[in-house]
Amino acid sequence: MAGRMRAAPKDWGQASRVVAQAYFPHELRPVGGANEPRLTLRTLDLGPVLIGHVGWGADVAIECDYPGAYEVNLPITGHLESRGRFGALTSVVGQGTVFRADTPSLISHWDATCTVLGVKFDSTWLEVETERILGTDRVNARTVLPEQLSFEDRRGRAWRQLISSLGANLHDPDLFADSELVRRQLAGAVAAGLVDLCCPDGRVPAPAQPRTIRRVVEALHDDPARAWTAADMAALAGTSVRRLQEGFQQWVGSAPSHYLLDIRLQRAHADLLTSPTLSVAEVAATWGFSSASRFAAAHRRKYGSAPSDVLRQGGRTV
């Protein structure tokens, strides 16, 4: 069933309890100096799936263990900064942050302008659905789900549109109240769309990366601005440059240098969208690009637009 707040919370403790009742127990900390919350909360209960519209109206940080459920947060406005297994992560409109069941996680900055569509999945149910959809018990939701989703391709746009269309019903609390069968079917469609997004054409993700590869991956996420060389990465992995290249191709699907470039571009693109005082040159330097022109060329290849265009769209100077 759908739900909404009966009255606006008057203090941070009350706001935290209201959200905890709908989603998860958590530790909430205002970080922007706001005296009181301006909480937005509406939810649609589909049984094993809960879809909600959530905004705090102030800058906050949240620590949560996500007991018994996975969560996908899709920013509608603003941005969401968190710390995942591989370091800092920022999601903006067109992306979604994935939080794993029973895993301590930190949302380091939920900005005051950020509202999200939050999709909560019962973990046991989603793992069974994942096995059923893929036709194998060799994987589970923890294996399939990445830390961040992109909704730029056809599958991504389709799933985001499905969530948005269900979110449009948050204003009608009783729409599916007497339709258990419909609610279950809708929940199944949400899960199937997510699995299809993460496993195109039913391709099951590769097994977990070997420790040597994972060590390099984690280091690149932790410090992408460092002037990494192939020799640096190989030394960290304890192997030769050639074997590291082969390992990355097998387990990651790209060369280490290409993987590092993608991390830098993601971080830089997020800065262009969310940091009002930075120039293109400053963003390029922050994330380890040797020049603004090289950064601009790489950004155009990945996102189809120049960094300066992103800044202009935000009403800022280059």
From TrEMBL:
Keyword Transcription part of the UniProt annotation: yes
Q: Does the keyword Cell wall biogenesis/degradation apply?
A: no
Q: Which InterPro entries match?
A: AraC-bd_2 (IPR035418), AraC_XylS_family_regulators (IPR050204), Homeodomain-like_sf (IPR009057), HTH_AraC (IPR018060)
UniProt keyword annotations, A-Z: DNA-binding, Transcription, Transcription regulation
Alphabetically, the GO molecular function entries are: DNA-binding transcription factor activity; sequence-specific DNA binding
Q: Report domain HTH araC/xylS-type positions.
A: 214-313
Protein name as annotated: AraC-like DNA-binding protein
Q: Which organism is it from?
A: Nocardioides panzhihuensis
